[in-house]
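Running this now, will post back.
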Amino acid sequence: MYVEKLEAAYPIPMLRGIKPLPGRHPCYGNPKKLLSIDNLKNFLGVSSLETMVEDCIEVPKKTKTKKPRSLSVPKEVSRQRDIALFAAVEALQEASTAERLLKCLSTYSQLLKAKGNDQQLSVDKFFTLQDDLTNTRLILHSLKSIGQRRTADTNPNAPDAVGEALRLALDIKQNTTS
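Update: finished.
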């Protein structure tokens, strides 16, 4: 077919000057649809209007999910703070114990140097040395018990273990100051 002119019209454009091409066979019979609308719907997966409306109107339901333990930030921060505090207290206790021990050794060396000068001063220094050594031994014993309890814990990161360690550190501090 040969189309001379295509005129714009609404809703369908108009064809003007249609002539068969020479040497071609004219169309005979009833034309049939190459693609029916039903087959086209199935091919494209078009759904009915009802399901389209339901999909548009359907409000997604909010599911209440539990927060993972790791998202509990304030609790985790306070737990880490407690662990850091315990480590700092333990380090200070060990440093204090080492300082006390060095002081005892210094006092002992002074006693050895003062052979016969002032006997009363030497006796006083000896009793002071004995008291310092006793206190240092108590502190070392409590530090040792903390180390044993901490290694005996199955989960040192548990909140109960941290609280117990802080109580032990407080006991050590009280022993140190007394």
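The two ends are 115 Å apart (CA to CA). More later if anyone needs it.
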